[in-house]
Amino acid sequence: MTTQYPWSSERTDPRGKPIVGVDAGIKHLAVTSEGQYFENPKALRLYERKLKRLQRQFSRKVKGSCNWYKLKDKIAKLHYRITCIRKDAHHKATTAIVKGASRIGIESLNVAGMIKNHKLAKALADASLSTFLEMLKYKSDAMDVKIVEADRFYPSSKTCSACGVIDSDLSLSDRTYHCSACGHTQDRDLNAAINLRTVAEGHSETENACGDSVRPQQLGHESSNQADSTAIGEQLLLFSLS
Length: 242
Known about the structure:
This protein is of the alpha/beta class. The protein has one domain (about 1-240). It is built from seven helices and eight strands. The strands form two sheets. It has a six-stranded mixed β-sheet. Strands 7-8 form a two-stranded antiparallel ribbon. The longest helix has about 35 residues, at about 65-100.
């Protein structure tokens, strides 16, 4: 499901398509700087109770019996359905974003590190953000749309898109961004998407004059993980959670 909000950018390239910032997350699969919200289907959560019931029944069956194989097939089909729902949402969102942009600004998410937070692990694995971002990248490459990744430690959610002040006290539970400096109030995800658009435009301070990434000094540093290993980690977590 896609929701369009009355927020439009006048920043376009010579081809007439806008430069777009994309904030990927859990509540919404993706939010663009143009005010477009792509809903997260939460496929695993949708079928979690049914999956648990089938697995309880499966554990009681005699291994190798006809009923054991029947339930095994049912569980496999349900896992396949969950995967298809998730992939369908990813394909629709990424195709719509790439077709409507000349350049895209995104975050460099450390999904493998984020999954270590047990309160968010299941929701993150269900959203499969690393797969979503990889899909966005290969479609952008195929359609000759440049992807600009912000530095991993760039505070896109905590930075005011109006005046640039950073709110270090902003927590994950705060869904609306309110700037104490200029009074600007906006949806948290939309605010982050606009900041990522600024990065894509080349006016952000996340890069120096040589084009090298510059991260804020007060924030820590974590080693980067390969996207393929992150995706495998998500799948293994989903399997263990189910």
